[in-house]
Amino acid sequence: MLRIQRKLLVVLLVIFSIIAAGCTNNNNSPAPSNEAGKPSNENKSADKEEDKGGGGTGTAAAKEAPMLAKLAADGTLPPLAERLPVQADVMVEPVVDEIGRYGGDWTMAWTGPGDKWSVGQPTEEALFRFNKDGSGVEPNVAKSYEVNEDSTEFTIHLREGMKWSDGKPFTADDVLFYWEHMLTKETFGKAIYDAYYSVDPVTGDKALATVTKVDDYTFKVVHKYPSVQFLERVAIDNKWFFAPAHFHETILPELVGEDKALEIAKQWGFEDTNAFLKETGYYYWLYPQIPTLRPWVAKNDPNGDQFIMERNPYYWKTDPEGNQLPYMDRIVATKIQDPSQRVLGTLAGDFNLSTFGAQDFTVLKENEKKGDYRVITWQQPAWMTSGIQLNQTIDDPNLRKLFQDIRFREALSLGVNRTEITEIVTNGIADPIQASVQEGLVGYQEGWADQWSGFDPDRANALLDEIGLTKRDKNNFRLFPDGSDVTLTIMDSSEESANYTELLKKYYEDMGIKTNVKLVDQATLQELKYSNQVPVSIENISVVNVAYRPDALVPLRVLTPWYGLYGLYVSSGGKEGIKPEGDVAKILEYWDQIKAAGTTEEINRLGDEIVKLHMKNQWVIGYAGPTPTLIAASNKMGNIPEDLIWADEFRSLGAAHPAQFYLKP
Amino acid sequence: MLQYTLKRILLAIPVVFFISVIVFYIIQLPPGDYVSNYAAEMSVAGEGFTQEDMAAMRADLGLDRPVYEQYFIWVQDIVLHGDFGFSFNYNKPVLAVIEQYMGLTLTVSLVTMAFQYLVAIPIGIYCAVKQYSIGDYFFSGLSFLGMATPHFLMAVILMFLSYTWFGDPLLGLFSAEYVNAPWSMDKAIDLAKHMVIPVIVIGLSGTADLIRVMRGQMLDELNKPNVVTARAKGLSERKILFKYPTRAALNPIVSTFGWSLTSIFTGSTITAIVLNLPIQGPVMFNALLGQDMYLAGTWLLFMALLTVLGTLISDILLAWLDPKIRTEFRGT
């Protein structure tokens, strides 16, 4: 381990010196400026006001990107007015700072098609999206909605005249088609989302919603029981509650026949229909053939060295002055093979908007001026940066009893010097606090951050003695009363955490608890979780609101380490796994009440109760507070908000509405 | 000689078959499979996978069948249809993936190889002829350095130099504007520019190696009686040098030529990752990491095949180059 670290250090040193040396030369770097020069020239000539007279395409030309104006003038594209929804239904996207200008590329790094979400999230257009502080949703693809008093009927209006990126109209039929032929038939590898089920508060009966078309631009979702958070749940579970019917009609086995579907799949290069339907139905934004509603649409094969998305000529949003968005012409994602190349590319100015974890803070900040970019920090709703989760249902009966003992968790919490961890692991960025909900988020609890957060080895040892781990072996490690070893095995899949886990090992062993760190690959870790073989994990907990995405805090499935097989018990309906007891059972009760709750206040109250149980039990122990996500944006790029929350629930960078980002000349 | 060649080819068939079994077995060894890997990757990106989702995916990909059955289907398709299976990662047939990267891989490898031979052989000859001269010490020292320096470190250093001198670390094989552009003069020049570092880095240790081998062989040959006789007969030094010792000294280089066949087709791996080169090495590496088993399996099999083939080619080349070996063939 140490040797590897030293090697890394050497490599890092070299890279740092490259960076330092490289940046002094940044001004005469020819390649990037050449590249940027070309499009920006075009921009100048097509500047809004000037073009009005010169272009000869009338007022419409002033409101669309020069590259589209040219096509429209040629007659290749219909004029802008025909491409946008009817005037009243155009969505006006507020700009963050100022009205932007057209042109330029958003250049970024990605690791290939496996990295699909890093282009997927920023370009996503949801039916309803979260508002800025994440407290609720607002219509996006939908124009508006009405809901009846007991939250069983949702009438959703679409935008008249809105079109897919190939120019075909987007109507309620696309929603109905998606619902009837894809979602409820489970064609794309996902089960029907929970959001579409409502629960009877009394009997717990689960009922699937019905979806009906009212007219071309209106549809209705009817639940049997009240579903207060339906829109929020859809915004989390099923961002796109629609699909281009005219495209999927031509490939779905149900409509074209199994054989024909397989033949089409083969033509696309797929081996079997299921994989094909999953890719086209779920990861559709990677395929140029499939029309979307996104600001940029795929232009080439994502398996290449450079994936390009180009502006959608039929995009249905404008800025407040009526200019059709997006401002930037393209997204150019260059394939990288190592994360350090993302840093290097950002410092060299090759990538003008990229996101990083807090570990890159120092190197990014040091070169901010030379690299002509700025580092924007977005808060993450994480509970911590470094911590541990103790598997409450681990196989070994001795360990299980120990992990379930609250005194043991207190001892592990007190026996670690948080100040040292934050300094070493997070460069002092994080606060030395307990794993807890941050202030400002749903579920924040006064004083939680300081619970058991001091460094008190004496008390920790006293607690361990009190539990009965008084016997010691010849190496002075503690033994169970029956004489067997107390060994904590920390499992992780990333070597990046090595310096942290080594520190943990030291603290734990100082308390007399033997600790092993086991590094396994991602897939193995996944398998081990399913077979209940992960006693201690250092995974983080990140949750915006337990009611939106419960599985980190409520044992509903397997993958979250702290609840282990409790989750399997719930997801298998009691057939497998271990029956939750005590406070974990109480969490599940609260969760059932949330599902059937009638008002938002009630949901928030119940969510708060769940969080309080976590505070009381501290199944997840944190040693360093959360760190922000870093966004390194070229100083030329404008309209990037600086005060958002980075959460998967809010679609990460997508929360900033990248369609209104623009490049200054 | 024809008979010998035929015999060798026939013998290769069971060897390749045996290798395919081992390859498949090795790929199955690590715990987990492509699906668990994929699910883990996606859950990092925030997309949840339930056990049912994973089971369904396994069934779709045929990963729920027993290993021997999977192996059997794989081999059957190869033999009957020339179909090497499907790459899960790329959602493409394996051959299409390999084809996608083959052009650039071959370009980089062949240029690297040409660089190696063009640089190493003359230097090797020079070092032998002027043994213990300043030049000899210089090149020998350099070649030891070249052999001892790890590739990736060299790559990082050269990137650093390129960055300080030209303001571009020259990552990848093309500048951003040329990646998807059709072939043109400018694109070719851009490629040539980007090839400098990989060719030097990948070629360096091979070059260093070759210099040592060439020098040693030449030193052996230089004092052979045939050389002395030729000199006594008054042939010009240059003619002697190239006609006799050089030709003989090439033997070991030619006999190892076939082994480099695999590296020609895969290109390097670690260096390619550091330099972000779009060639086979990293593709293969990721296939192994992600347990994209048919892609990885095909590659391993392919490499094994190339090694077998390479050895064969080496033997035939040797027979062609060296009259002594040729006569031995004829004798039998």
Automatic annotation (TrEMBL), chain A:
Residues 44-53 have a biased composition (Basic and acidic residues). One of its GO terms (cellular component) is plasma membrane. Its main location: membrane. Keywords: Signal. GO terms for molecular function: peptide transmembrane transporter activity. It holds the Pfam family SBP_bac_5. It is found in: Cell membrane. It comes from Paenibacillus catalpae. GO terms for biological process: peptide transport. Residues 1-20 form the signal peptide. This is Peptide/nickel transport system substrate-binding protein.
UniProtKB/TrEMBL annotation, chain B:
Residues 102-318 form the ABC transmembrane type-1 domain. PROSITE patterns: ABC_TM1. The chain crosses the membrane at residues 9-27, 101-129, 141-166, 195-214, 257-279, 299-321. GO terms for cellular component: plasma membrane. One of its GO terms (biological process) is transmembrane transport. InterPro entries: BPD_transp_1_N, MetI-like, MetI-like_sf. The keyword Lipid metabolism does not apply. Keywords: Cell membrane, Membrane, Transmembrane, Transmembrane helix, Transport. It is a multi-pass membrane protein. It is found in: Cell membrane. Belongs to the binding-protein-dependent transport system permease family. This is Peptide/nickel transport system permease protein.
